[in-house]
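Design a sequence for this backbone.
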């Protein structure tokens, strides 16, 4: 290799590390906006993301602003970001379900990456200048959640029905989550107009803007309609689930419910069992009996990022209704009818 060839290779390597393509040297330089400070740019991103994302990252952005508020986005190094992530890990509030601050560190890095993604999209920085991409997230540990055993479900429902200031509401919540495997946000987002009584469907709006019709048993549909009528959820767009006073419930009702159940069912307290465990329970039951495709649809999971196999085993609403009918022991209007002669 000649010395000139070696020099060219070295130049290409240097340009690559700087995020510059050789063709860029042949064009007029694009004028880039002035790099803002964290104090200037955080509000811009907070207004651009969804309300849920802003809530999730707000505490980490406040910390960034407190520590680096006057610094420009192009000033911190990957090592400095990693140092702040480790400080977030060390300062994480210790709870029964804490995992050594891993979630705090992971969420901090995710919040920083969100800021820099927007900065790259706004052409404030180039992809190569994004320091957050050079900081690895902590390895995520396996979730401790699992499917509940039958006797655990019985104990949980009994505690909800026999204690507390509103057993009717609490048992309705447990049944709703057990039948639909919906997330807490899906239940809190239910409106009166989301009840499709003829076909026994509820319309769920869940995280990342996803939405779907989910089958429910005729019994649960009657309970939801009765609850709405008795507690004043008459406006089509008004929240469905309410206290006796007519006020809509919030996530605090779930906190109170599981804290109370934990006083009567020790495993709920020691294992930090929550509403999401009901989702695990139902989806595990469906997968074991009806296969992965039906469980995938039952969960309301998006196909994005999943194996291409999902395209070929995608289940229909009728498949989900059939699984629900088997789970509840009640016929459902959309469930598949047995073929004549008993053939499946």
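Sequence:
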């Amino acid at each position: 290799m000649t010395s000139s060839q070696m020099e060219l290779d070295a130049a290409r390597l240097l340009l690559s590390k700087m995020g510059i393509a050789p063709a860029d040297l042949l064009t007029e330089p694009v004028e880039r906006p002035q790099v803002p400070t964290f104090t200037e740019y955080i509000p811009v991103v907070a207004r651009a993301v969804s309300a849920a994302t802003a809530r999730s990252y707000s505490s980490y952005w406040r910390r960034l602003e407190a520590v680096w508020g006057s610094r420009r986005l192009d000033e911190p190094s990957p090592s400095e970001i990693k140092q702040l992530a480790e400080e977030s890990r060390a300062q994480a509030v210790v709870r029964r379900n804490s995992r050594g601050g891993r979630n705090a560190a992971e969420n901090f890095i995710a919040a920083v990456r969100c800021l820099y993604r927007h900065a790259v999209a706004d052409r404030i920085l180039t992809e190569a200048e994004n320091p957050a991409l050079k900081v690895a997230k902590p390895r995520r540990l396996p979730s401790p959640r699992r499917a509940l055993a039958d006797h655990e479900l019985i104990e949980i429902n009994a505690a909800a029905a026999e204690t507390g200031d509103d057993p009717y509401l609490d048992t309705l919540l447990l049944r709703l989550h057990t039948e639909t495997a919906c997330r807490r946000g899906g239940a809190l987002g239910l409106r009166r107009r989301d009840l499709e009584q003829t076909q026994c469907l509820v319309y769920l709006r869940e995280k990342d803007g996803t939405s779907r019709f989910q089958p429910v048993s005729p019994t649960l549909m009657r309970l939801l309609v009765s609850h709405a009528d008795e507690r004043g959820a008459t406006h089509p767009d008004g929240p469905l689930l309410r206290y006796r006073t007519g006020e809509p419930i919030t996530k605090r009702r779930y906190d109170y419910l599981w804290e109370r159940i934990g006083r009567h069912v020790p495993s709920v307290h020691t294992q930090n069992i929550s509403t999401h465990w009901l989702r695990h329970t139902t989806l595990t039951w469906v997968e074991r009996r009806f296969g992965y495709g039906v469980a995938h649809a039952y969960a309301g999971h998006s196909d994005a990022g999943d194996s291409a196999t999902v395209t070929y085993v995608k289940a229909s609403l009728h498949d989900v209704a059939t699984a629900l009918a088997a789970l509840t022991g009640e016929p459902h209007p959309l469930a598949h009818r047995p073929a004549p002669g008993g053939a499946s």
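The chain has a mean pLDDT of 88.
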